[in-house]
Amino acid sequence: MRQRQAKYLDDLASREVPSVEMSQAERDEKEHFRVALQRVCDNVCTSNSRIPQVSLECFGSFQSGFASAGSDMDLAIVVQDPSSADAVFSMFEDDLPRSLEKELLKVGFGARLLTRTRVPIIKICQEPGECLLDKLRIEREKWDFLPNEKKYPHLHKEDDETAEDDGVQAIDGAAKTMETGAEAAQLVATQATVEAVTTNGSGSTTQKQTTSITATATVDEDSNGKQVAQARREQQKSWTRERKAGPLDFPKDGIGIQCDINFFNPLGLHNTQLLRCYSRCDPRVRPMVLFVKSFAKRRKINSSYSGTLSSYGYVLMVLHYLVNVAQPPVLPNLQMPWRPHPNCAPPGYSRTEVDGWVVDFWRNENEIEAALHNGQMSPNTESVGSLLAGFFQYYSSMGNGAQFRWTQQVLSLRTPGGIMTKEAKGWVKAITEEGEGKKIQHRYLFCIEDPFELSHNVARTVTHNGIVAIRDEFRRAYRILMSVGIVGQPSQEGELLDQLIEPDEDEQVLEQHEEVPAQKKKRHGTRGKRHTDSDATVDAEPQQRKQSLPKSQPKQLDVADQEDFPTLSSVKTSSRRKKSTGSATKNSNFTEISGEKAAEYLEEFRRKKAEEHAESTAYGAAEAVLNGLD
């Protein structure tokens, strides 16, 4: 059985890996773009004596060797003089992040500064086009004209909180002034979140419980009931693995090279070097990583901003399997004392501390490659296909081999054996970290410990729907491989690397399917049975595709609500407010405000919601950057 599976995967990998790996020509083009960005950065630093000279250094997959064709380039700001670094990382108007964003837009590059992330990030594109460039410039101009309390909310936290409270209280009163049921229906679907916060000693981390509060409008049931019901239905749309892009989000292609600049991510450079050294330990590592990344992208479980896992997370999953699960091990643990011979650099030789975290691993690439050449690294002789078969079985938690326990275990690459428990790490409940006007949500449904920053869960962006999707895809892969092993061909679920088509996409394709001539109806990338050239198969295809699509969820989960995380075995603490009876006197928790003041509050509330939506879409992409991925 394993031989059939290995042959199937070897054949698949031999076709897939060359098609997704980055060419040298693409690498050279991206390096030229990095040099152009360095010149812009130099000009900004030279024109402002407060800003020290900095360099833009590559990290992430582009530097580690795991980059896919067309992937973004990740850059980190490195300060030449650390003693004068304040202006580099500050968010004030004349400091580097804001100044660099402004200069990039001025010279014609697309640029957007993200500030609600763990560290500041500028997303950049080489050729934005006039329309996108105008939108980005207008957005920057809006920020320029904001009052200081809006520009720097963390400096006016008390005022900001008071304004937010007033705004929430105003919603109920404002709803009563709406002239149409459509306007009121929009408010019925508006929700605010109230947090019960327990602060630790440092005052930075909170344990979060949420209570859903519905801002209910007083509307006439006969005239407006249908609109209210429609608004509620729209709030319950099924979750999709890929979110629709916002108005300021960069499209996937057509805008030249895309790049992300991190302003403070020193551990990212060391993480990249660790992964680069692992890629040098065995020639099977790189094709295996590229194959798994391609699998995750095709099956749409590779989007941290949509609630699934970053590419960096999948790389760590592969390395964990090769170090700790494959027998004999394919890779040594580079963070352990083992060396192939006494002439290698000893443990602790390159030890350093970065932001209080110890960084110590075997990082001498020449010694690693020499040991590989001399056959001193691993006695394991399995093919890439055989290793991939074991990889999918392990993470499917099915079959007779070793299994990863998703609800109980933490992947810990640095640890002997590679596994810790969630209880031992204290990673059993979602928490929110607050500071400098932003909140960072830490979830522990899926846990992958960062090799150096031990308090960081690389999979913290994975939501309940996300982990369900990831596990479902590994189980689907296992079923396909079992079918290959038993009968010699994939199951009715399709090929392993078939592109997943979500319901919304499927409807769009079906509409196009009806418009094009019959000879062009054939569709690629479905998850069902293979197409044939017969008309009967083509005509039956839409129904087959409909049956193969994942079922819609009856209700969209609130990813910030502990109630939505059953795997954490937490006590349900959320409660829902009873529906309004239409009487204003029964809702004593809201202060009614009418007239122009109410309209102003409502407009401000809508503006903030729109900003949060746009920011959240970019936020997950930024988290992907922080994890050193494509």
Automatic annotation (TrEMBL):
Residue span(s) of domain PAP-associated: 383-456
EC class name: transferase
Region of interest called Disordered, as start-end residue ranges on this chain: 222-247, 508-596, 608-630
Polar residues biased stretches: 545-555
GO terms for MF: metal ion binding; poly(A) RNA polymerase activity; RNA uridylyltransferase activity
SUPFAM superfamilies (UniProt xref): Nucleotidyltransferase (SSF81301), PAP/OAS1 substrate-binding domain (SSF81631)
Domain Poly(A) RNA polymerase mitochondrial-like central palm: 19-128
InterPro entries: MTPAP-like_central, NT_sf, PAP_assoc
Bias (Basic and acidic residues) ranges: 231-247
Domain of life where this protein originates: Eukaryota
GO biological process: negative regulation of macromolecule metabolic process; RNA 3'-end processing
Cofactors named for this entry: Mn(2+); Mg(2+)
Location of the protein in the cell: Cytoplasm
Gene Ontology terms: cellular component: cytoplasm
Keywords: Cytoplasm, Magnesium, Metal-binding, Transferase
PANTHER family cross-referenced by the UniProt entry: POLY A POLYMERASE CID PAP -RELATED, POLY(A) RNA POLYMERASE GLD2
Family the entry assigns: Belongs to the DNA polymerase type-B-like family.
Protein name (record): polynucleotide adenylyltransferase
Organism of provenance: Cercospora zeae-maydis SCOH1-5
Lineage: Eukaryota, Fungi, Dikarya, Ascomycota, Pezizomycotina
